[in-house]
């Protein structure tokens, strides 16, 4: 018996196929198998390529956000963070200018007279300051520029306020000087605390602390402008405080004020609607609370929009609103701790913490560029004085 170990379709002498059809079939099969192998390899490479591209895109996105956010939230360098560096005022020129301003007499109507030439002045004069039962109110506009939809909440809050209008301390003097103390890092190292305490009216914002920062920020507070989520939690921050003025952003803010005054805390479910934990108790008497009139916010919006590149529904900062408030109360208005130095993202954002200026890049609520132009015009016109020189 003959056993064939190898069957070939080629002529052993010529090397030509004996059966062309079989050879073609064999070649086609080999080509097809090669194509499948190549296609499979290409598909795998394509899948790997897409996966790698997705991973690369995610890494790039995370990297971009890290560049913006991470530097803003890490502490300043060790020397800046740990040392309370400035044993002497960091700017003696500004310190001397502040001292010179306080050494002179108060000038009646100085700020208002210098405000009038500005285009925005018409809306910033003679505004109501605090909400009163018999005063004018805008029920057609929503908070914070009006009180639409809050009628019942306003009535309950006003019923708990024995003195909703101007206190005697803001009605008695013939000439008053105001200082609005901002939270800006430029206040750090200024040594302006003793000067700030000499003003007739000292206006502070939200939870900007006093305790431990008296050298730069002073110790007295005439009006602390705030909303519930921004109220200081430490009881000692209300020492030497004459008044707390609520800025209404929602009807629940009025309920919070009523609860703080009446010492009846809000329910657990009501508190869930705040975007941040709120304080239940403020160690002040009922006569020390007020509700800021929303027309202050409304006219601040109108004034700032004159400087905006795009007309958007931006909410003004409490700082800009406090300046407009001060123009209603005082003859001479000064600013301390104002100005965002966006050209130096590593600079200190607030005087009381190590958060950096870069954090302002990611906020979308305020138009800080337009506000800076607005404040610069006020300073240039002489309507307000910039004690820290950053506006």
Automatic annotation (TrEMBL):
Its main location: Golgi. GO terms for molecular function: exo-alpha-sialidase activity; lactosylceramide alpha-2,3-sialyltransferase activity. The chain crosses the membrane at residues 54-74. It is found in: Golgi apparatus membrane. Pfam families: Glyco_transf_29 (PF00777). InterPro entries: Glyco_trans_29, Glycosyltransferase_29, GT29-like_sf. The keyword Membrane applies. One of its GO terms (cellular component) is Golgi membrane. It catalyses: a beta-D-Gal-(1<->1')-ceramide + CMP-N-acetyl-beta-neuraminate = N-acetyl-alpha-neuraminosyl-(2->3)-beta-D-galactosyl-(1<->1')-ceramide + CMP + H(+); ganglioside GA2 (d18:1(4E)/18:0) + CMP-N-acetyl-beta-neuraminate = ganglioside GM2 (d18:1(4E)/18:0) + CMP + H(+); a beta-D-Gal-(1->4)-beta-D-Glc-(1<->1)-Cer(d18:1(4E)) + CMP-N-acetyl-beta-neuraminate = a ganglioside GM3 (d18:1(4E)) + CMP + H(+); ganglioside GA1 (d18:1(4E)/18:0) + CMP-N-acetyl-beta-neuraminate = ganglioside GM1 (d18:1(4E)/18:0) + CMP + H(+). It comes from the Eukaryota. One of its GO terms (biological process) is lipid metabolic process. It is a single-pass type II membrane protein. Keywords: Disulfide bond, Glycoprotein, Glycosyltransferase, Golgi apparatus, Lipid metabolism, Membrane, Signal-anchor, Transferase, Transmembrane, Transmembrane helix. Gene3D superfamilies: Glycosyl transferase family 29 (3.90.1480.20). Its EC number is 2.4.3.9. The keyword Nucleotide-binding does not apply. Belongs to the glycosyltransferase 29 family. Transfers the sialyl group (N-acetyl-alpha-neuraminyl or NeuAc) from CMP-NeuAc to the non-reducing terminal galactose (Gal) of glycosphingolipids forming gangliosides (important molecules involved in the regulation of multiple cellular processes, including cell proliferation and differentiation, apoptosis, embryogenesis, development, and oncogenesis). This is Lactosylceramide alpha-2,3-sialyltransferase. The lineage of its organism: Eukaryota, Metazoa, Chordata, Craniata, Vertebrata.
């Amino acid at each position: 018996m003959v056993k064939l170990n190898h069957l070939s379709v080629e002529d052993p002498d010529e090397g030509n196929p004996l059966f062309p059809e079989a050879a073609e079939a064999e070649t086609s099969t080999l080509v097809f198998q090669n194509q499948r192998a190549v296609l499979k390899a290409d598909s795998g490479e394509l899948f790997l390529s897409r996966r790698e591209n997705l991973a690369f895109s995610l890494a790039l996105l995370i990297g971009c956000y890290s560049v913006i956010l991470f530097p803003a939230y890490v502490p300043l360098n060790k020397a800046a963070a740990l040392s309370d560096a400035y044993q002497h005022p960091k700017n003696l020129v500004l310190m001397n200018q502040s001292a010179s301003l306080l050494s002179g007499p108060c000038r009646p109507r100085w700020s208002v007279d210098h405000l009038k030439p500005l285009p925005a002045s018409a809306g910033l004069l003679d505004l109501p300051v605090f909400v009163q039962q018999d005063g004018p109110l805008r029920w057609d506009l929503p908070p914070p520029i009006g009180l639409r939809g809050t009628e019942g909440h306003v009535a309950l809050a006003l019923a708990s306020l024995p003195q909703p209008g101007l206190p005697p301390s803001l009605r008695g003097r013939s000439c008053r000087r105001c200082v609005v103390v901002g939270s800006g890092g430029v206040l750090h190292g200024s040594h302006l605390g003793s000067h700030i305490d000499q003003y007739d009216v000292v206006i502070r914002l939200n939870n900007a602390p006093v305790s431990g920062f008296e050298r730069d920020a002073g110790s007295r507070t005439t009006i602390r402008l705030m909303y519930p989520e921004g109220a200081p939690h430490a009881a000692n921050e209300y020492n030497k405080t004459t008044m707390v003025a609520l800025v209404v952003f929602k009807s629940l803010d009025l309920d919070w004020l009523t609860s703080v005054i009446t010492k009846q805390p809000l329910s657990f479910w009501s508190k869930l609607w705040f975007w941040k934990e709120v304080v239940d108790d403020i160690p002040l008497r009922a006569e020390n609370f007020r509700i800021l009139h929303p027309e202050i916010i409304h006219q601040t919006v109108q004034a700032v929009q004159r400087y905006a590149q795009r007309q958007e529904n931006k909410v003004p900062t409490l700082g800009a609103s406090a300046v407009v408030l001060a123009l209603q109360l005082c003859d001479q208005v000064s600013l301390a701790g104002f100005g965002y130095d966006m050209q130096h993202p590593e600079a200190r954002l607030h005087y009381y913490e190590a958060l950096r200026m870069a954090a302002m890049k990611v906020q979308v609520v305020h138009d800080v560029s337009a506000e800076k132009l607005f404040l610069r015009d006020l300073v240039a016109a002489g309507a307000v004085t910039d004690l820290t020189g950053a506006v």
